[in-house]
Design brief:
six-stranded antiparallel β-sheet, 17 strands, globular
């Protein structure tokens, strides 16, 4: 796992100056690769490639990047892991390639040299973002993995084309103008994250998952519209539709066996490492399954890491400990104080260098920091919800829609205002064992008023009904969540759109920045593209059955762990932000929500101040949206 960067000057620039400029701005992602920094400059073109190394495979200097192909044609900087590189190396064995070391990067750059980029991408499995320079054609390729596990940004700083793993690199360039993209700001206020290809800055774009871009030096000199060159090499939506239309005819027993073998293979591939390796364990289905399979494969106890919370209703550490004890792992548990979690908040704008509002970024960072004390690589259960129907919305939204779609709108409005007439805290008291029950009920009330399944889903993902009410200027892109499975269910449509948007731009962004902030490589076996393709070939009842999601994953886990240890409602990875905003964080929030700062940043001052005052009185259910506004304000103050 590493950080990559690159710089192409459109005008003549001395090689030493190119080297120094890229070297200076690449230091800003040293956390992604603390072990080494290397810069390479082309001799004929004003192009430089930069790399920050976190040594995982081949710890010697033979694994240093930029990496050159054996014939000297291609030069690559690469962030991530190619898990099947040994299989590819075996396929290349007839090509008489002389390898310097045994890194996956060296294998892949030589595969490209022999097979071409397209064929290599079809064969390679992993998480990656890389840049490839073709010296002969004077062409630059930028590529991102199929499901969006690793980030890759690109854009303009004056007459310089820059690409990098994080936006910090752009901000460090002296010619970069930090101009807010109002449409992206609108997206953020609505969803709490910014989907690709948008970024918070004008003239900078985020390469979407499973996409690449190919630009010759001559094309770059014309300063083209970069997103118009994005091209897909693997289309998740089309694959899901194709697989769904032709389900296999096999028994449940055969399916369970096939899936068990597939997921075991994915876990085993991700356990290859030349440095210490462990795994996160929350006690939920996804992480427990990964840990169970790791322990089955491993010859010694697997290192597992869990954090818990002092606050009742937010702590899952006891469940994780029970799983770890049953499986016999080398378990590590840390119970967080509120102070530890609060101390992370000032770090978030630096960690997530564009606005990002997922509150679970805090515990994700803290468990990553905890694990990094012992290991350099940690596996996780990310992807299980989107792949196998784990989110509560896959159950509740279709049920709510079917029960209410024919209710006259006036009656829906009465129900809506009845729910809203009591503050969330009052509703919380009716369900004391369910944190944030009141806020969830408020969300259900707003969903009740939607007129289509697509609108219901969009409202579920939204932090507010209409961002235009809160922002000065900007246009909200339409039909963001438009993918549809012909003949599929409402739940399956949500699962597909989650995999295309919520997963890469919220979940995987959160995990990438949190792990990389402490120089920890995170690996997610359930996000193997083979699993994506396999589960979309199965009927919905393999995912959702008897009022529960992840049926197929449960069949795998029950082979290793008694059901009573994991069969409970999904809790999530969150913290009591509403309570904190009224107490420990009140002074911090008051400063960021001052009339002066809200007005300065183009936000609707009166409306937001009213929301804030209502929250302080215990009225509303506004903590999630207020957190979104606060993270934007905190980001703006930093950047």
């Amino acid at each position: 796992m590493c950080g990559i960067s690159g710089l192409v000057a459109l005008t003549s620039c001395p090689k030493a100056e190119m080297h120094n400029t890229l070297s200076n701005i690449t230091t800003h992602i040293a956390h992604r690769g603390p072990d080494a920094q290397q810069i390479w400059c082309d001799n004929g073109i004003p192009l430089a490639l930069g790399h920050r190394r976190l040594s995982i495979i081949d710890l010697t200097d033979d694994g240093l990047q930029p990496m050159h192909s054996h014939d000297g044609r291609y030069t690559m900087v690469f962030n991530g892991e190619f898990y099947n590189f040994q299989d590819i190396k075996e396929e290349l064995s007839t090509h008489n390639i002389l390898y310097k070391g045994h890194s996956d990067t060296e294998v892949i750059v030589n595969a490209i040299s022999n097979w071409g980029l397209e064929k290599t991408l079809q064969k390679a499995r992993g998480m990656f973002a890389f840049a490839l320079w073709d010296k002969i054609e004077k062409r630059l390729y930028l590529v991102r993995d199929r499901l969006g596990k690793k980030p890759l940004y690109m854009g303009w700083a004056g007459d310089n084309f820059i690409f990098a793993s994080e936006l910090k690199v752009f901000c460090a360039h002296p010619e970069f103008k930090r101009e807010i993209a109002l449409d992206a700001k609108m997206l953020f206020v609505k969803y709490g994250y910014i989907p690709a290809p948008s970024t918070i800055y004008q003239n900078v774009w985020h390469l979407p998952p499973a996409h690449m871009i190919s630009l010759s030096y001559d094309q770059l000199q014309k300063k083209p519209n970069i997103p118009s060159f994005f091209q897909s090499y693997w289309n998740a939506a089309d694959i899901a539709r194709q697989k769904h239309a032709h389900p296999p005819t096999k028994s449940e027993t055969e399916t369970i066996t096939e899936f068990t073998n597939l997921i075991t293979s994915c876990v085993e591939e991700r356990m290859i490492s030349d440095v210490p390796l462990g795994t996160f364990l929350s006690g939920g289905l996804d992480s427990s399954t990964i840990v169970a399979l790791m322990q089955k494969i491993s010859s010694q106890p697997v290192k597992t890491y869990t954090i818990g919370f002092e606050q009742e209703g937010y702590d899952e550490a006891m469940h994780a400990k029970a799983i770890a004890t049953h499986l016999g792992t080398d378990h590590h548990e840390h119970i967080l104080t509120g102070r530890e979690a609060l101390d992370v908040i000032p770090k978030l704008p630096q960690m997530y260098d564009e606005p990002f509002a997922d509150i679970s970024a805090i515990p994700t960072y803290l468990v990553s920091k905890f694990a990094r004390q012992d290991v350099t690589v940690a596996l996780s259960g990310d992807g299980g919800d989107e792949m196998l129907g784990g989110y509560q919305r896959y159950l509740s939204a279709p049920s709510l829609w079917n029960k209410t779609k024919n209710i006259p709108r006036p009656i829906k409005n009465i129900i809506y205002y009845l729910i809203k007439s009591f503050p969330p805290e009052t509703w919380d008291k009716t369900h004391p064992k369910h944190p944030q029950f009141g806020e969830r009920l408020y969300k259900a009330a707003s969903i009740l008023r939607q007129s289509s399944q697509k609108d219901v889903y969009d409202r579920i993902l939204s932090q507010c009904d209409n961002p235009v009410e809160w922002i000065d200027g900007g246009v909200l892109p339409q039909d963001l969540h438009k993918q549809h499975i012909e003949g599929g269910s409402f739940a399956e449509d949500m699962m597909l759109n989650d995999a295309l948007f919520y997963l890469p731009y919220d979940i995987l962004t959160k995990v990438d920045r949190a792990t990389m902030a402490v120089s920890l490589e995170g690996r997610a076996p359930l996000l193997d593209s083979r699993i994506f393709e396999y589960v979309w070939s199965l009927p919905e009842h393999y995912k959702i059955r008897d009022g529960q999601g992840k049926w197929l994953l449960r069949q795998v886990l029950k082979q290793h762990v008694p059901e009573e240890l994991y069969n409970r409602p999904k809790q999530g990875f969150t913290i009591p932000v509403g309570e904190w905003l009224r107490n420990d964080l009140r002074e911090w929030a008051e400063d960021l929500l001052s009339e002066e700062k809200l007005t300065e940043n183009g936000l609707n001052t009166n409306a937001i101040r009213k929301l804030w005052n209502n929250h302080l009185k215990g009225q509303g259910g506004h903590s999630v949206f207020l957190w979104t506004i606060l993270t934007y304000q905190a980001w703006n103050e930093r950047w």
